[in-house]
């Protein structure tokens, strides 16, 4: 039974002495020798005289290479060897290394810092941008630090904000990173030197985790400048005595000044839904008398392209007249200006004086 078992084994097995002479071999080993035309009594494999598992390659006359994992064990009767065919495994590892090299070359040109940690939590891939953004030496990153070690180094290098309770923060980060159920880690870091980083952590298949660090300082500065300009613009329009309101091309109210909110007792920012031109006209009609030319307003705001300014008068309950001026703005938006009789008179007087001068 033991002889039948050894002779029917799919993996090559053989026994050699200290000189490398073969004393026994099974049929699988004989077939392998025949394929490679090995001399009699000499092993097709060249193995070290040590126990363990060794990877050995064989190349035939056609240049084809086969890989085997040979397990060697010393026994009382000699050196017992078992070979397992692992060519598909070696090919897969070569393909994986080539893929990783391709990724590394691709990521090398990205301005975003990239750090990919494997399932054991060690840094596997990083790009040059990470070195620049983190301020960490490439030699340190090449030692494959853990995720916690990586963040500790960032903290020591002052490339992340100082947390109030760093011990708890580390635990929170570790829990977020370890989550492999589609969660995401996203934070904005404001550094001591004034720079701002956007940091994202994304769980990947097989327990890997990718971190992306992007310098968004320019975007933040531009956004702050834009907000400042908008606030100044709104403050300027709030100082205008005439009531101003702007509707987009789709007829949605996008801006109104303080005089408009006071005149019509309406604050669009306090409503949950968008205020449309029809909503606004319903409000204006409820607070005025007579039959105003509301279709003119509807047609003017709905039309596309350039249009000449139009005007209509609205009668207020106290008998005063409010002049309603329609003006086309960029992107087919419409600005409507409500001027009281006194404001219109002041504007006309200023215009006359300007012409006379």
Describe the structure.
The protein is built from twelve helices and 15 strands. The longest helix has 22 residues, at 217-238. By secondary structure, it is an alpha+beta fold. The chain is elongated. Mean pLDDT is 83; it is low at 344-357. The strands form three sheets. Strands 2-1-5-4-3 form a five-stranded antiparallel sheet, sandwiched between helices. A five-stranded antiparallel sheet has the order 7-6-10-9-8, with helices on both faces. It has helices at 2-7, 27-36, 87-107, 128-134, 138-141, 147-156, 166-178, 217-238, 258-264, 277-286, 294-302, 341-356, and strands spanning 13-16, 22-25, 52-59, 65-75, 78-85, 113-117, 123-126, 185-190, 196-203, 209-215, 243-247, 253-256, 310-315, 321-328, 334-340. It starts with a helix and ends with a helix.
Mean pLDDT: 83
Share of residues in strands: 25-35%
Overall geometry comes to elongated
Structural class from helices and strands? alpha+beta
* Low-confidence segments: 344-357
- Helical region count? 12
The H/E string reads HEEHEEEHEEHHHHEEEHEEHHHEEEH
Distance between the termini: 123 Å
Per DSSP E runs of 2 or more residues, the count of β-strands stands at 15
Radius of gyration from the alpha-carbon trace, in angstroms: 40 Å
Biggest β-sheet description: 5 strands, antiparallel
What portion of residues is helical?
Answer: 25-40%
Q: What does the oligomeric state look like here? A: single chain
In order across it, which strands form the biggest sheet? 2-1-5-4-3
């Amino acid at each position: 039974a033991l002889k039948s078992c050894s002779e029917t084994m799919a993996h090559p097995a053989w026994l050699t002495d200290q000189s490398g002479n073969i004393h026994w071999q099974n049929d699988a080993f004989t077939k392998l020798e025949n394929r490679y035309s090995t001399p009699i009594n000499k092993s097709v494999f060249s193995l070290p005289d040590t126990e363990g598992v060794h990877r050995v390659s064989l190349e035939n006359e056609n240049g084809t290479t086969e890989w085997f994992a040979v397990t060697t064990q010393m026994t009382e009767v000699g050196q017992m060897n078992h070979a397992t065919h692992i060519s598909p495994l070696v090919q897969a590892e070569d393909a994986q290394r080539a893929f990783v090299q391709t990724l590394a070359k691709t990521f090398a040109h990205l301005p975003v810092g990239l750090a990919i940690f494997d399932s054991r939590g060690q840094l596997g891939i990083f790009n040059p941008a990470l070195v620049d953004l983190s301020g960490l030496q490439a030699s340190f990153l090449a030692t494959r630090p853990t995720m916690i070690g990586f963040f500790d180094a960032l903290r020591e290098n002052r490339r992340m904000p100082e947390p109030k309770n760093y011990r708890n923060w580390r635990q929170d980060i570790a829990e977020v990173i370890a989550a492999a159920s589609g969660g995401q880690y996203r934070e904005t870091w404001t550094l001591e030197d004034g720079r701002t980083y956007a940091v994202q952590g994304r769980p990947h298949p097989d327990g890997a985790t990718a971190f992306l660090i992007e310098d968004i300082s320019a975007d933040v500065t531009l956004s702050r400048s834009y907000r400042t300009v908008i606030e100044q613009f709104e403050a300027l329009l709030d100082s205008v005595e005439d009531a101003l309101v702007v509707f987009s091309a789709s007829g949605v109210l996008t801006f109104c000044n303080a005089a408009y909110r006071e005149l019509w007792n309406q604050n669009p920012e306090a409503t949950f839904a968008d205020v449309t031109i029809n909503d606004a006209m319903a409000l204006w009609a409820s607070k005025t008398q007579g039959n105003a030319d509301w279709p003119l307003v509807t047609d003017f705001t709905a039309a596309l392209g350039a249009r000449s300014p139009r005007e209509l008068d609205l009668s207020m309950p106290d008998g005063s007249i409010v002049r309603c001026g329609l003006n086309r703005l960029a992107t087919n938006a419409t600005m409507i200006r409500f001027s009281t009789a006194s404001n219109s008179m002041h504007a006309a007087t200023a215009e006359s004086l300007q012409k006379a001068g």
